[in-house]
């Protein structure tokens, strides 16, 4: 069994209305049934191989350069608590390094509110133009995300803009991730296990709206289907994996599902790039369908509550 394919080109640009409706229906059904989709027919100017090269070159930077970007949880004198680098922590529940960025246009401010936190960038770039290449990828993910939301509006018969309008000034996060190879000497302490398999990202659902995942050719991503069986999502060229987050599940009254997934520990280095599409802080989350029944709230309230559950973010202003 493989995940359904949705063609992004059918949902974009000079679109043919019939093809658009048909693809929006496929997208909605796949998100309702699986919560996971393979995206193909991606924009021509989106260069996935280049992004993976950019990620590998970031993690090959000198350790000191990366550590200067670490968040305060890992580096006491850091000004950043939200956006930045996190090192691998052998013995913990996950085993990966990461570097997280938000919307590239945030200006540095001295506000204590982490929602105002600006990006940090390496003081030595892997190559000239690396930062603009990564920023371009961020903008392209935001655009693909909007195209998909546009399709979901059609699937649910919503007024155009009902969802998409909440994504200007988005709080979306781009994460570059590096999973070191594990071997017999690795401290696998608290890592999740299932039979003889070990997982460097434990079973979870994503918390936001939707995730656009680029993975290299190593493999290891597993998704739990409706029967409760784990299936492997094989890497494929020119493909992104999309999955629904818990907030969109709630927003749609559980008509779309946030599906559990996990990542098996690799025996060689693995690189992946999840882009977590998130609304603007002041987006009002109010029932989207008549199946949804909850009191409206602002996205920033949800985010602060979520983050306060993660030890890395303890002490965030207002969290
Ligand atoms: O690295 C991956 O392939 C997926 C990671 C993931 O599920 C996550 O960061 O939420
Ligand atoms: Fe995830």
Automatic annotation (TrEMBL):
Residues 169-279 form the Fe2OG dioxygenase domain. Keywords: Ethylene biosynthesis, Iron, Metal-binding, Oxidoreductase. Its EC number is 1.13.12.19, 1.14.20.7. GO terms for biological process: ethylene biosynthetic process. Its cofactor is Fe(2+). Gene3D superfamilies: B-lactam Antibiotic, Isopenicillin N Synthase, Chain (2.60.120.330). Pathway: Alkene biosynthesis; ethylene biosynthesis via 2-oxoglutarate. One of its GO terms (molecular function) is metal ion binding. It is an enzyme of class 1 (oxidoreductase). It holds the Pfam family DIOX_N. InterPro entries: DIOX_N, IPNS-like_FE2OG_OXY, IPNS-like_sf, Iron_ascorbate_oxido_reductase, Oxoglu/Fe-dep_dioxygenase_dom. It comes from the Bacteria. Signal peptide: none annotated. Belongs to the iron/ascorbate-dependent oxidoreductase family. This is 2-oxoglutarate-dependent ethylene/succinate-forming enzyme. It comes from Saccharospirillum salsuginis.
């Amino acid at each position: 069994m493989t995940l359904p394919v949705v063609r992004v080109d059918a949902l974009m640009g000079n679109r043919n209305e019939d093809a658009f409706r048909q693809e929006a229906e496929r997208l909605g059904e796949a998100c309702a049934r699986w919560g996971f989709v393979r995206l193909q027919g991606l924009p021509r100017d989106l260069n996935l191989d280049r992004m993976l090269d950019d990620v590998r070159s970031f993690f090959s930077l000198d350790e000191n350069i990366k550590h200067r970007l670490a968040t305060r949880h890992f580096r006491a004198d850091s000004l950043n608590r939200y956006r930045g680098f996190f090192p691998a922590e052998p013995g913990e529940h996950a085993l990966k390094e990461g570097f997280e960025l938000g919307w590239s246009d945030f200006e540095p401010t001295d506000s204590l509110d982490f929602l105002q936190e600006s990006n940090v960038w390496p003081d030595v770039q892997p190559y000239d133009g690396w930062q603009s290449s990564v920023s371009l990828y961020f903008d392209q993910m935001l655009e693909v995300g909007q195209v998909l939301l546009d399709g979901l509006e059609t699937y649910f018969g919503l007024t155009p803009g009902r969802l998409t309008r909440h994504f200007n000034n988005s709080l979306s996060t781009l994460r570059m991730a590096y999973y070191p190879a594990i071997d017999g000497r690795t401290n696998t302490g608290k890592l999740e296990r299932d039979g003889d398999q070990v997982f460097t990202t434990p079973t979870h659902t994503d918390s936001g709206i939707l995730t656009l995942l680029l993975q290299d050719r190593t493999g290891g991503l597993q998704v739990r289907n409706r029967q409760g069986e784990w299936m492997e999502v094989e890497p494929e060229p020119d493909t992104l994996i999309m999955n629904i987050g818990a907030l969109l599940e709630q927003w749609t009254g559980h008509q779309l599902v946030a599906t559990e997934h996990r990542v098996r520990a690799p025996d060689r280095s693995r690189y992946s790039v999840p882009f977590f599409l998130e609304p603007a802080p002041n987006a009002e989350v109010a029932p989207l369908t008549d199946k949804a029944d909850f009191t409206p709230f602002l996205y920033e309230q949800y985010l602060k509550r979520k983050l306060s559950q993660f030890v890395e973010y303890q002490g965030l202003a207002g969290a």
